[in-house]
Amino acid sequence: MRPRVIIHNVASMDGRLTLAPGVDLMAGDERWAAMMGDLADPYAWARATHDPQVFLEGSGSLLNPVGAPLHDAEPGPPAEGTHFLPADVVSAPGRHWFALVDGAGRVDLQFTEWPDPAWAGWHSLVLTSRAAPTAHLARLRDRGIPYLVVGETRVALGRALELLRERLGVETVVSTGGGRLGGALLRQHLVDEIDVELLPWAVGGRGTPMLFDAAPLTVDQWPTRLELLGCETAGEGRVRLRYRVA
Hints:
The protein has six helices and nine strands. The protein is α/β, with parallel strands linked by helices.
């Protein structure tokens, strides 16, 4: 059994998650900052509303604009079924997780806990696959960053979520990842709720990342039916929408 999964994103009114292909918002962009207005912490509402044990992020959000690795990867898969869950980290009371989906081992995490006192107790966790280089996993172990190896060439999201519950007692996951992660969760029927805070700006642009980036529906597939849970204004023209997956 998997945890409850909520997708939470802040987007332009036309569903864009950034300004153009290759624009790294984590590096800072004055245009997006202006669009956000007084929304200083996009995580605050999700934390207060859902009280998640995990925030889930995709590797694409932490890579450079061309999607290249941030370290020199060496070939070679890890041993089958090998997880790294050090007891002193996992068993800490009130432990919460920033979980990164990184099947190829492309992201070189530099912190074990988020460097902000407001996020004390939130520890890094990597969900990876057997395609991750052994040298990359060794770096994670050296830094005390736990990981779960789930899948052959990419992360098996359904099983990864089950392991979060089985091994770490996770009840609620909020995914703040980009369109690819959101699209994968949606297509695999792993989403219980979708929350979107819409900014009063239109971005447009071919190839600009959007809420759900997944393979097109086939002729025998249906769109995902949603039921409205709530709609409220959030200040400065923003609108917050909540939908339950029917």
